[in-house]
Amino acid sequence: MELSAELAGGEGRAATADVAEYALWLGDDALILSQQLGVWIARAPELEEDVAIANIALDLLGHARSFLRYAGAYDDRTEDDLAYWREEPEFRCAWLFQQPNGDFAQTMARQLAASVYLFELYTALQNSSDETLAAIAAKAVKEVEYHRDHAVQWTLRLAGGTDESRRRMIRAVGDVWPYVGELFRDEPLIDRLEDVAVRPSTLQPAFDAVIAAVFAEAQLELPSAPMSSAGGRHGSHFSTLGYLLAEMQVLARQHPGVTW
Amino acid sequence: MTTSGASPRESWPLWEVFVRAGRGLSHVHAGSLHAPDADFALRNARDVYTRRSEGTSIWVVPADAITTSDPDSRGAFFESPAGKNYRHATYYTASEGVPHL
């Protein structure tokens, strides 16, 4: 079977430039988070966790491929063109997904926020009037539900583990949370995609409720840090994204058209 | 500096994983893995042993909860029943009208 046949969303071509742009946002979020998690492979605390993180990274890469393929079809670019041949300002990922891995607690705090958000997003996106986006979301939501469970389990264990693990989890949540607010900001693009896109602000109540329940069980407090002025949707990025892209793109750029 | 996992306190306990491939089948030993507790053992087992739809159900058992036979006393313990044909119910003929015995 052709690998691309496993991707959700089939042969669609985005109806408008706005739909393609929206697909790019979602694809970039998944792509960058996947790349970040890939760094953990062979570095996770135990072999079993290595496998778990690798599986999550591969799921996200699948979502990214589906979204990017759909976005690129609009102007005849391939998913590889979009992943490997765009410059930093052309990426549209939110800052949360760009946050450095830090220690394991920081990766899990980022993963908790990301997967709770993605679960709510994909659940809603299944009702999109755009069939391709709805199909990708329907496939992704089942996988993200597991990612969310994995992150919740680790949050509970790190927060309720040793003094050191609890200290690190609290610090990690404090470091990651300023970048959560950007996920729920309604950009002008959303106004032009009524019925196609999910309005980000509508996801916040459900996100807050899930996080509140997890934090209550983990005896964590919601950080009170102000929201960052993150501008990932406009191509303004966190300082570490450039390094990540350089590593991700180096092979494709040194050997254009390479296959393996 | 010590190697991670070198001391017992640092390493996660070992779990044995049993996977049932489908309804009506029994759980079959699939392998073992490390996990901090039973909940995580189940999740790790799902990742390691059932990613390609191999199973409909997973059991995990702490490896030290399993009592095993002694591999050194294999001979006596598993003596073949060869030559003890009287132990096999092969001398009986099925009665007529009992097709599914």
From TrEMBL, chain A:
Domain of life (superkingdom): Bacteria
Taxonomic path: Bacteria, Bacillati, Actinomycetota, Actinomycetes, Micrococcales
Name of the encoding gene: paaC
Recorded GO MF terms: phenylacetyl-CoA 1,2-epoxidase activity
Keywords: Oxidoreductase
Pfam families tied to this protein: PaaA_PaaC (PF05138)
GO cellular component: cytosol
A biological-process GO annotation: phenylacetate catabolic process
EC number: 1.14.13.149
Protein name: Phenylacetate-CoA oxygenase subunit PaaC
UniProtKB/TrEMBL annotation, chain B:
Stored Pfam families: PaaB
Stored Gene3D superfamilies: Phenylacetic acid degradation B
Record protein name field: 1,2-phenylacetyl-CoA epoxidase subunit B
Organismal lineage: Bacteria, Bacillati, Actinomycetota, Actinomycetes, Micrococcales
Gene, per the UniProt record: paaB
